[in-house]
Amino acid sequence: MADKNLLSDLTFLGGPSRLARYIGRPIHHFAAIEAAGGVLMLVATVAALVWVNSPWQDSYNDFWHTHLSFAVGDYHFERDLAHIVQDGLMAVFFFVVGLEIKRELVSGQLRDPRFAALPAVAALGGMVVPALVYFAFNAGGPGQDGWGIPMATDIAFAIGVLSLLGNRISSQMKVFLLTLAIVDDIGAILVIAIFYTSDLSSNWLLTAAVLLAGILVLRRLNIWYLPFYLVIGVAFWLAVLESGVHATIAGVILGLITPAKPLQSEDEARRWANWLRMQDVVHLDDVRRVGFHLRESQPVSLRIEEMLHPIAGYVIIPLFALSAAGVELSGDVLSDAVTSPVTRGVVIGLVVGKAAGISLFAWIAHRLGWVTIPKSLSGLHMVGLSMVAGIGYTVSLFISRLAFDDPAVADESRIGILVGSLIAAVVGMAILSRTEPPLKGSEET
Question: What pTM was estimated for this model as a whole?
Fold first, then answer.
């Protein structure tokens, strides 16, 4: 949690005003809590459900179907607000996901195959088995295209659930679930790109390829002027959107090609810091020059991720939840959902398929000698973590929107996502609360 002493009294948050004390700093402290993003997402979900089941339910659909348009020459862009969130703002979210994946590949858990093997194998089971479970309920039916829905794990909600259990959760358990969720994200991205893309336009694809090549050339020339990348990046996103490939893939690609290694070594940054300290008279230009070298000792991807992560977690995802979670919960809708193979496939896929797939694939890989399961991830720990991984919320809702054109089937799938994710969270917490907390000060290997 953020400490008030870390806030400068030169800023509003560190100041003595009542607004800062009673509103600003509490919000700042809340944002520093690990589960804050998940809390806002939950609030947005409840707000969407209340709104769509209130006397003002027509205003919910009217609002999200409000059309925005603009024209540049012969090109005309028109989308409603729901699709602007889905295709535009969610592209920023997936850009952040791409940055996280790149960081893990370059300097995180996915860099070392020994550490990545267990969560990677477990994630594979957590994608394959739920998809098969769902397909078993819906093969040949109107809902068969939704097999990708129960494959997803929601990182924000899953890590938020673990944070609620305090010292019962070891750092190794968090790292395992985080790495599993990132591998899961890679699988979801591939599923969206391959199976939920149609009507490709070769001209727009060629345009996207040219723009992507332009970004790579700028990188090669060591040109780091952000407005260049912003303009070309937006154009690349628009070309991908019009090509028929889902626009969020543009965000992922841009995240993956962002440099994840610093342009300036730490030793060089230290030399500049020491140089500044040894100056008899320090000028503003000297501070700026040293500040530049210190900034460049931090990877570009990490700087952008730190800047966008709060926007993605506290603005974009709650907005997406508000636009996607609005399901009418009338008696007829609920009775249809109870008997719907789509709802049952999603719920059982998230709750049973995820837990069984992750645990089973990890156990098989361990028996074959491919991976080693540490004590902190064995037994009830593995079962509880695999159950928490069944919280599929954000990406599951996203795939549901891509999979179904029929509003009734889409509603049945969303009810399944809400119910399945809730069951997975509650059962996962119940199981993990029965496990022994790690010894204080022990180092897990």
Answer: 0.76
